[in-house]
Design brief:
There is one protein chain. By secondary structure, this protein is of the alpha/beta class. The protein has a single domain (28-205, 253-471), classed as TIM Barrel (Alpha-Beta Barrel). It is built from 15 helices and 14 strands. The protein has helices at 13-20, 52-64, 71-85, 106-127, 172-175, 180-201, 207-220, 222-225, 228-243, 265-270, 301-308, 323-333, 353-366, 394-411, 456-471; strands at residues 90-95, 131-136, 149-152, 155-158, 256-261, 272-274, 281-283, 288-291, 313-317, 342-346, 372-375, 383-384, 390-391, 417-421. The strands form 4 sheets. It has an 8-stranded parallel β-barrel with strand order 1-2-5-8-9-10-11-14, surrounded by 6 helices. It has a two-stranded antiparallel ribbon with strand order 3-4. A two-stranded antiparallel sheet has the order 6-7. Helix 4 (106-127) links the parallel strand 1 and strand 2 (131-136). It is globular. The chain binds erythose-4-phosphate and phosphoenolpyruvate.
Length: 472
Amino acid sequence: MTVPAERPPTVPPTEAKAVMREPDMTTAPVPRTAHSTWRDLTAAQQPRWPDPALLAAVTAELARAPELVSAEESDRLTARLADVTHGRAFVLMGGDCAETFTGTTTDSVRRKLRTLLQMAVILTYAAQVPVVKVGRMAGQYAKPRSRPTETRDDVTLPAYRGDAVNGLEFSPASRTPDARRLRRMYDSSAATLNLVRAFATGGSADLREAHAWNQGFVRDSPAGRRYEDLAGEIDRSLRFMKACGVDPHATRGVEFFAGHEGLLLDYEDALTRTDPRTGLSYATSGHFLWIGERTRDLDGAHVDYFARIRNPIGVKLGPSVTADEALAYADRLNPGNSPGRLTFVTRMGASRIRDVLPGLVEKVTANGVAVTWVCDPMHGNTFEATSGHKTRRFDDILDEVSGFFEVHRALGTHAGGVHVELTGDDVTECLGGADGLLVQDLHRRYETACDPRLSHRQSLELAFLLAQMLRD
Ligand SMILES: O=C[C@H](O)[C@H](O)COP(=O)(O)O
Ligand SMILES: C=C(OP(=O)(O)O)C(=O)O
């Protein structure tokens, strides 16, 4: 049998055995597999599940459930991200800070997807390269927290850790971790993926339509009118394509991937599958998984688990990271130095990016490390407004992205993409933007379950501003 070049040529003996094992249809606990060594290490930010037997039953059920994404799809994303690593593409990652079970509706998924597609059209035109689209969707149900508890008046309860763990409502019953929620996370993720696949391939994702929506934004809002020129250029390009007889179907349908923080290792472990083509392990809960800033301990359980799966993966890097640590992540997580496998998502904060990023990029580049650089301009710019809402300033977000582009331009490296928290709705969670949202506006539609997201309009505005940076 000929083994295609991109596939590993050998099958490790332990995993080859797993390929041949008959499916286990009993309710016996799932046996430990090659990807389960994380269990011997410290796993940060895991819930204290009060009922271990329930957790075991739920994860055993998940281990027998169909995978949500396939290894082939994940490999395709790795190939697309390799193009980003080489400077031949740009990546747009975006979606909710925390997806919720009740928020998983057809309309909300459609609006988020539409926002991302609208942004992608603008960025594709400006960058003149393909834009790889990864939703923070279909799995973003678990949150790391700064503090394990939350106190209101004189009542202290466990902090909300995402719908996969407990409820947002501040009551003892709701805040108690419940492992049955992991099953709901799987179901909600499956439902979201189903919708995403339908929209992305069923003709709803039409380039011309996405542009027409952007023109609506430009025409109908004072914020949008600033971008009339760019929108006009895109319009002329599309007309030109049409006049040249480009098949209208060529502009329909997009390739869309799903990613989330691989935080809850019991869940990820249960959904890890052996790829029958190669005998290698893949997380099948999503195409792209990342390790968060709070769980990136090199000796910890998350790094160990991620080293054993073959998906494209990310590591969030905050301002305290050192260049040597970055090299150590590359060593542990991408020993073969394969382009597309590893993405560094930097989230330094607008005030630090220009100081911290250059040293990091320089050393990583000097060592020949193949990595995709992505900017998360959200997580280093959060603060509490006088109204008590957690918020971010649109200007800080923009400033961090500008810093990211400046640093890469100065070093001759590729600013590969952005990772943003956004929604398709006109929420009032981040300050500023062309609509000039003020602290006193925050309460009007503050709907996030955790961190503040860009509204639909702020997201489009960011895309237009990013387009200007890409063209510069
Ligand atoms: O989304 C990221 C984190 O979960 C979030 O920023 C943590 O927020 P906290 O500092 O309020 O716990
Ligand atoms: C928790 C997150 O980010 P970070 O790990 O960068 O704080 C997140 O992206 O949801």
